[in-house]
Amino acid sequence: MDWLDTVKWDRDGLVPVIAQELGSGDVLMFAYMNRQALTETAARGQAVYWSRSRQRLWHKGEESGHVQQVHEMRLDCDADVLLLKVTQRGHEPGIACHTGRHSCFFRRHEGGEWLTVEPVLKDPETIYK
């Protein structure tokens, strides 16, 4: 059996993917992959996702330079979610979020509201030209 056939793809041919920073364990972002994205990620050693908004493959960092070096790919027990253990490259400390933050999960629920708890490391206007 082809290793790609082990993955339980959804009806759109996608699988959810969590990108986790290798060193810190921080969850950096959530995205989707199709078969081609997963194949390219394995071949390149860098994260390639399927952009649902753009309807095309998206090599993480293609515009920003903030690529994700993939150290490990794991498949969950139900074979329907992937976990990538990555090093975020392109800016130190690594920026994974298009808002210029380290992680896309920068808001914490507290006291009935969502508080921004992570700083902007670089102005997105200077990242995306």
Description:
Helices cover 11% and strands 35% of the residues. The protein is mainly β. Strand 1 and strand 2 (27-33) form a beta hairpin. The N and C termini lie far apart (44 Å). It is built from 2 helices and 8 strands; from the N terminus they run ββαββββββα. The model has no long low-confidence stretch (mean pLDDT 93). The protein has helices at 35-44, 124-127, and strands spanning 15-21, 27-33, 48-51, 56-59, 68-75, 82-88, 107-110, 113-116. The strands form 3 sheets. It has a 4-stranded mixed sheet with strand order 2-1-6-5, with helices on one face. A two-stranded antiparallel sheet has the order 3-4. Strands 7-8 form a two-stranded antiparallel sheet.
Classified by CATH, the class of the domain at 3-92 is Alpha Beta
SS-based class = mainly beta
Radius of gyration over C-alpha positions, nearest whole angstrom: 15 Å
Number of strands: 8
CATH superfamily of the domain at 3-92: Phosphoribosyl-AMP cyclohydrolase
Average pLDDT, rounded to a whole number, is 93
Uncertain regions spanning at least 5 consecutive residues: none
Gross geometry: globular
Order of helices and strands: EEHEEEEEEH
Looking at the structure, the CATH topology of the domain at 3-92 is Ubiquitin-like (UB roll)
Strand order of the largest sheet: 2-1-6-5
Helical fraction = 10-25%
The main pleated sheet reads as: 4 strands, mixed
Distance between the termini: 44 Å
CATH architecture type of the domain at 3-92: Roll
Q: Assess the beta-strand content as a share of residues.
A: 25-35%
Number of helices: 2
